[in-house]
C-alpha cells in the first residue's frame, strides 16, 4: 500500500492550506517570539531573571512530552477533531498568558499552551500530505517548510516590535485573530479522517516522556545551573538516559508498543530522522547565536538585528518555492547535496566575520544559508514519508517534529556552552599580551601601557569583543564541519523513482 493512497479530495485545497499554515506559523512563532519579551515580563510579574526563564522551559518541556502522543491521540479522537481542539486550546491559553497576573500563573498557562500546541506542527504536515496528491506533495512540503523555517527568524523581531510598540502581553494576544481564522478555515475545509481503534502503551509513553522531558529540562536549565557541576543536571541526565534506554528496549520487545518499531525499518524515514536532527542542530543554533552576537559585538538594536537577519528567511522562501517544482524533474537527493554544500559554504562565509565589518557579510551569508537549508528541508520532509504506509504517518510525523526539536535544543545548548568556554579561554590568552613590555601596546594606547585604569578598561573591552568574535567564528567552523559530515547520509536515501515501482522500496505495513 503506497502512501499516495492516503490522499483525500477537499472542496478548496487553497483555503485549506491557508488555514493549516496559519495555525502552523502561529505555533512556530510562539517558540521564539516570547524570548525578547522576558525582561519586560520579568518586571511586570515580579520575577527574577533566573525564574522568568521557566516561562520558556515549561513550554518546551510540555511540548516535548506531548508531541509523541500525536499519533495515538489522532487515532483515538480523530485527526481533524484533534487539530481543531489543539488550535482552540492553544489560542485559549495564549489569551490567558496575555492576562497572566503572576509568574506562577504564567508558567502554568505556558505549560498548557505547550500541551495543546505540541500536535499542531505534525498534524499540519500530515494534513498537507492528506489533501495533496503525490505529484503535488513536494510543493505542499515547500509551503509547510517555509512556515517552519521562516517562523523562528521572524519571531524575535516581531516579539521585539510588539513589546516596544505596545506591551509584552501582545506577544501572546496576537495569536487570537490568527487562531480564529485558522480554526474557521480548518473546520470548513479539512476532511474528516476515520478514527482507528488502537491500544495505549502507558509504560512506553511514560518512559519516553521521562526521557524526553528530562533531556529537554537538562538542556534548558544547564546554563543556569552551571551544567555538570550541578546535582540537578546529573539527575536530569540520568533520568533522560534511563527513560530513553528503557523505551527503546521496550519498543523492540513489546507486542503493541507506544510507537510501532516497524516504521524505523523504512530506510528513507530512518535516514531522514538523522538528517532532520542535524538540520535542527545547525538551523536554530545558528539563528540563536546571531542576535546576541549582533547586539554585543556590533551594537545593533533588536529591530536592526531583525532586518539584518530577515534576508535569511527570504533565501529560504525562494529556494523552497523553487524546490517544490524542481523535485518533479530533478532527483531530490541531488537537491539535498547542493543544499548541504550551500549551507556549509554559508558557515564558511560566517567564519570570516570580523568586528570591523558592515552588515553585508551577515546579509549575504544569511541568503546563501537560507537557499541551502530550503533545498535540504523540502526534499527530506517529502522523502521521509514517501514509502510509509498511511497508518504509520501520524506517529512518523510526530517523531519527525520531535527529533527536529531535540536537535535544535541540543544544538543551541552545545554551541552556547562552547561559545562561553571559548570566550573565557580566548580572553585569557589575548589579555596576556596586554602588558607594559609589549611595544604594540605603547604604540596603540600609551595610557594603558602606563597603567591608567580608564584606558585599561577600554582595552579590556576591545579584548573581550575580539575574544567573543573568535569564539563565534569557532562555532561557525564547527557547524560547517557538522554539515559536511552529514552529506554521506544522502546515499542512504532511496530514489523516489525506484520507490514508485514498489519493488525497490516497499511500503512499511503496520497493523
From TrEMBL:
The keyword Transferase does not apply. The chain crosses the membrane at residues 12-34, 54-73, 82-101, 107-129, 141-162, 168-190, 202-219, 231-249, 269-290, 302-323, 335-353, 359-385, 397-419, 476-493. Residues 16-498 form the Major facilitator superfamily (MFS) profile domain. Its main location: membrane. It comes from the Bacteria. It holds the Pfam family MFS_1. GO terms for cellular component: plasma membrane. It is a multi-pass membrane protein. GO terms for molecular function: transmembrane transporter activity. Keywords: Cell membrane, Membrane, Transmembrane, Transmembrane helix, Transport. It is found in: Cell membrane. This is EmrB/QacA family drug resistance transporter. It comes from Mesorhizobium hungaricum.
Amino acid at each position: 500500500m503506497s502512501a499516495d493512497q492516503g490522499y483525500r479530495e477537499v472542496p478548496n485545497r487553497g483555503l485549506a492550506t491557508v488555514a493549516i499554515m496559519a495555525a502552523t506559523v502561529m505555533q512556530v512563532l510562539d517558540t521564539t517570539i516570547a524570548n525578547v519579551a522576558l525582561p519586560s515580563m520579568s518586571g511586570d510579574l515580579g520575577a527574577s531573571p533566573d525564574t522568568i526563564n521557566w516561562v520558556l522551559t515549561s513550554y518546551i518541556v510540555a511540548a516535548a512530552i506531548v508531541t509523541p502522543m500525536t499519533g495515538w491521540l489522532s487515532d483515538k479522537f480523530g485527526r481533524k477533531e484533534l487539530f481543531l481542539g489543539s488550535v482552540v486550546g492553544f489560542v485559549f491559553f495564549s489569551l490567558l498568558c496575555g492576562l497572566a497576573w503572576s509568574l506562577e500563573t504564567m508558567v502554568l498557562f505556558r505549560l498548557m499552551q505547550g500541551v495543546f500546541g505540541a500536535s499542531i506542527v505534525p498534524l499540519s504536515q500530515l494534513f498537507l500530505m492528506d489533501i495533496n496528491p503525490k505529484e503535488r506533495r513536494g510543493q505542499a512540503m515547500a509551503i509547510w517548510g517555509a512556515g517552519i523555517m521562516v517562523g523562528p527568524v521572524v519571531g524575535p523581531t516581531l516579539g521585539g516590535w510588539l513589546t516596544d510598540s505596545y506591551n509584552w502581553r501582545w506577544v501572546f494576544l496576537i495569536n487570537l485573530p490568527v487562531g480564529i481564522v485558522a480554526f474557521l478555515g480548518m473546520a470548513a475545509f479539512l476532511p474528516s479522517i476515520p478514527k482507528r481503534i488502537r491500544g495505549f502503551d502507558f509504560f512506553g509513553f511514560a518512559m519516553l516522556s521521562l526521557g524526553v522531558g528530562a533531556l529537554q529540562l537538562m538542556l534548558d536549565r544547564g546554563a543556569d545551573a552551571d551544567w555538570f557541576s550541578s546535582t540537578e543536571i546529573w539527575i536530569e541526565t540520568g533520568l533522560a538516559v534511563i527513560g530513553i534506554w528503557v523505551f527503546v528496549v521496550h519498543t523492540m520487545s513489546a507486542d503493541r508498543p507506544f510507537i510501532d518499531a516497524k516504521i524505523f525499518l523504512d530506510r528513507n524515514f530512518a535516514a531522514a530522522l538523522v538528517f532532520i536532527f542535524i538540520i535542527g542542530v545547525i538551523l536554530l543554533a545558528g539563528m540563536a547565536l546571531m542576535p546576541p552576537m549582533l547586539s554585543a559585538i556590533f551594537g545593533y538594536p533588536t529591530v536592526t538585528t531583525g532586518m539584518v537577519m530577515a534576508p535569511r528567511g527570504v533565501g529560504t522562501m525562494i529556494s523552497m518555492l523553487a524546490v517544490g517544482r524542481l523535485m518533479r524533474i530533478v532527483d531530490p537527493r541531488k537537491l539535498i547535496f547542493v543544499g548541504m554544500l550551500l549551507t556549509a559554504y554559508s558557515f564558511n562565509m560566517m567564519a570570516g566575520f570580523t568586528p570591523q565589518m558592515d552588515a553585508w557579510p551577515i546579509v549575504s551569508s544569511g541568503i546563501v544559508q537560507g537557499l541551502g537549508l530550503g533545498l535540504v528541508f523540502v526534499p527530506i520532509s517529502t522523502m521521509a514519508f514517501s514509502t510509509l504506509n498511511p497508518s504509520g504517518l501520524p506517529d512518523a510525523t510526530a517523531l519527525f517534529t520531535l527529533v527536529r526539536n531535540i536537535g535544535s535544543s541540543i544544538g543551541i545548548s552545545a554551541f552556547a556552552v562552547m561559545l562561553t568556554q571559548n570566550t573565557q579561554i580566548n580572553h585569557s590568552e589575548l589579555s596576556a599580551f596586554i602588558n607594559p613590555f609589549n611595544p604594540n601596546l605603547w604604540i596603540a594606547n600609551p595610557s594603558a601601557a602606563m597603567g591608567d585604569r580608564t584606558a585599561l578598561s577600554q582595552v579590556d573591552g576591545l579584548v573581550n569583543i575580539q575574544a567573543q568574535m573568535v569564539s563565534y567564528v569557532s562555532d561557525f567552523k564547527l557547524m560547517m564541519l557538522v554539515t559536511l559530515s552529514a552529506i554521506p547520509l544522502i546515499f542512504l536515501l532511496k530514489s523516489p523513482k525506484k520507490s514508485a515501482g514498489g519493488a525497490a522500496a516497499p511500503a512499511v505495513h503496520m497493523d
